[in-house]
Amino acid sequence: MRKRLLFIFLPALICAGNVIAQTSTISGTWKRGKAQAVKLCKIADGKLTDVTSSPVKENGSFNMTFTPTQEGYYALVSSDARGSMNRYVFYLKPGDPLNVNVTESSYTLSGDNTEENREMARWHDFTLPLEEKAVYHKGNSIYTDFFPLLQEKAEAMKGYKAKRTGNRTFDTSFKEYRTFDMLSLAIQFIYSPHSVHPKDDDFIDYYRQIDIPALSRTTAILDYPNGLQLLINAYMLRMRFDGTLTPERIKELQKSGPAEVLLKNNGIQSIVNDTLKGEVALMFGGINKTEEGMAEYMNNYGDFIVTADQKERWSHLPDRFARDGERQPAIDFKFKDINGKEVALSDFVGKVVYVDVWATWCGPCKREMPAMKALEAEYKDNKNIVFMGVSVDRSKDIQKWKDFLATEKLPGIQLFGGDEAITALTKPYKISGIPRFILVDKAGKLIYADAPRPSSSEIHAVLDKALKE
Known about the structure:
With 469 residues, the chain is of the alpha+beta class. Helices cover 40% and strands 19% of the residues.
């Protein structure tokens, strides 16, 4: 009996080995934009990872081969000379061919292709009118023409009949894929720039009925390109229409940080799947700028990490804060205060200095000012810390700066950099955007050239540690 079993199963094992080793050929033409190359990316954990690539020849043709280790969704991606991304998703098994011709407006299949990719192409044709408006902004579309089209397609999708391909794995996942794809186009339109944007009352029911628990019961959304970001965007949009939340409560939640909003019960629809929660925790771990902030974050959200792979990635989050050698001296600068007195950064050696680089025309700078005032008030009795503001307004706007100081009653040491700030401050510190915050230790050495903002959850731990050194 044992010999018979071996005879039965041994050929199956050999066949399985042959399937795994089968090579897939991806070829066709790419005539959209000015593509220099086409990449094939696999989709895993909601992210796109490069697998292989091919140069695009003068006639637009490309050709690449690879050996898939597993079947699933893959994306053909090109970045043209303008930097805009063009992406088309397909489904591949070991040995599957893909022959595709990308045109200026869409793509068509030609030659030898699988039933799965014929279904992918048919779905793409169905959603193409939405893609043209949401992704490529055809006709300078605004919500008054996009929303009716979206409503029409959403209704038609309820009766959409995909053909059975004979691949049960694909047929099952493809139903969820279509849901994610429709949602992606709907949300991409909202977050794209338009001449007119909808107010809350203008949104159609499709947006109000986004079902976060339904989207997150399994990890299927991680098989969609940038699926985790799609889930987060859907969550934040759904929160906007949650009737149980007041505008004030929404603002409170937004201040608490995205991880807090998404992972902890805040009275709105919750992400269901524990693995997805772990991916969210990992994703937002990357926003921490400091070791102190990272340590606090890992303490607060470590319980959401559940899989062995997540635990491995989680353990490496602090790696980017490993310091190389000793701190370097902070680059000194000297500007005048409102009374015309010159004040230098080096004047405060012996104290911790927290510098706010800002301008009167900068909206994000102004949004940080209430938090900065509150922070200064908390440390007002500590003589070992100095709060310094440096305006990078143009020299001709010095009166505007003085008037702003008087109106806003900004505390701390306020200096005017003017035109000199470019050579003395912004270039040496490689400042390309403001507000920028700089933290210097008591010895006059740089702790962070890009320190956490006053509104961040990290700032207290960072300042307290600097004061103890």
